Amino acid sequence: MIGHRNEVIVMLKPNLLKAKMRQKEEVLVQVQEYIVKEDLKKIGKGKKYFIKTYGCQMNEHDTENIKAILEEMSFEETEKMEEADFILLNTCAIRENAHNKVFGYLGRIKHLKEEKPHILVGLCGCMAQEEVVVEELLKKYKWMDLVFGTHNIYNLPNLLNETISKKQLEVEVFSMEGNIIEGIPVKRDSQYKAWVNIMYGCDKFCTYCIVPYTRGKQRSRLKEDILKEVKDLVEKGYQEVTLLGQNVNAYGKDLKENYTMANLLEEVAQTGISRVRFVTSHPWDFTDSMIEIIQKYPNIMPYIHLPLQSGSNEILKKMGRRYTKEQYIELFLKLKEAIPDCSITTDIIVGFPNETKEDFEQTLEVVEKCQFDGAYTFIFSAREGTPAAKMEDCVSLEEKEVRLQRLNERINFYSKKANDQYLGKVVPVLLEKESEKGEGTFMGYTDTMKLVNVKAEKKDLGKIVSVEIESVKTWSMDGRIV
Ligand code: 5AD
Ligand code: SF4
Prior knowledge:
The protein has helices spanning 16-20, 57-72, 96-115, 131-140, 156-166, 211-214, 223-235, 261-270, 288-296, 313-319, 325-338, 357-370, 397-420; strands at 9-12, 31-33, 48-53, 76-77, 86-91, 120-125, 146-148, 169-172, 180-182, 193-197, 199-200, 219-220, 240-244, 275-279, 303-305, 343-350, 374-379, 426-434, 441-446, 451-455, 464-472, 477-481. The chain is of the alpha/beta class. A hairpin with a 4-residue loop joins strand 19 and strand 20 (451-455). It binds 5'-deoxyadenosine and iron/sulfur cluster. The site of 5'-deoxyadenosine (5AD) has 12 residues, from strand 16.
């Protein structure tokens, strides 16, 4: 089906200026149904696909959609890249090292393609939305076959068809989001836990962040569509849903109806799903009514991911985060008081342009005060096109690395301290899969998102079992079913 390609290139390239645009007037998001033409459903027959996914849960969930689309076109999945006819990289743009990994991997694929010119190679996800990346691919990676953006997933059947039939490098990247597409099929990784998108994009424009450009304007899915998906999951026996969005607390703000994240969370909890959680929260939009709903429903997991980013008001201002460290701490303490035993994790960036020693010390002070259950910590990475990338920075990378190490030492200390509280306690654990430790050991998470290893039997998989915690480490715990 796939042969040598001629040099014609059809393009719709990403454009950062366009990606930044937001319409002023409130526009109701149009919903469009996903349809695949009958004649495209056979084009993958006898062929295998391999997808490698980088980045956040949003990307992982996109991959679940892409897999299902490919299987609707009769492709079969393989876990071995070497035996695939179609190799796709679903990429992440959030930091430089994610970029480098992808370009490194493309080098490996190039060798494979030299041996087997018939294979198709594609790149999608957030890097495909970046002008600089697409320019580089067009210059140095002409041997690739397909590049498509985060807003173009629904069109994959047509794009693949065009690539195959015209034998050309096909690039389709919409810079601006289009309609919300409902009805895209999904091949879920787990039979017990499911991701459910509740909104796409982000309008916060934190100055360091590329997401508002790569994922577009904030668009909430209609509540009817979300609830239908969750009810369907309950019927299929799913135990846990994670409501997904870059900034879930702002859910509904773009819809005409006066319906908020608190309303949605309540209705999802009422579907009878055993567990529901949501990521990611921006402190700015965390309302009291959300806290009340979390308190009211035992099936809403007492787990909140609340990115701090920095503990210095000066830096928070330069980041465009729209809160002060005092406001963050106030919200943190309110959550801890209202939701007993709630675990709170965070994201922190060190080395934002011109972060002083004092700024960094203030971040450490907030860490000492909040004693987070866990944190993802990063060194600032300049993303082309974002305001922070143009800011002057006189702090050396060595200094930033030292700061990161100091921060991680404190974060790990408090993770272990938080885990110590679990020793001897009996907690609910959703058993997900056999752990890497070996025979008879299974892994799962508590409702506070603590990783637990436990001896169990295959029949226990997918069940929420009571586990007594017998020993704790920094990142996991061991226990026994009681
Ligand atoms: N550099 C470093 N970290 C970043 N993040 C987002 N953009 C950048 C960047 N340019 C971090 C933030 C965010 C998490 C998903 O990634 O902490 O919360
Ligand atoms: Fe990026 Fe800020 Fe939006 Fe989060 S809230 S995705 S950090 S711009």
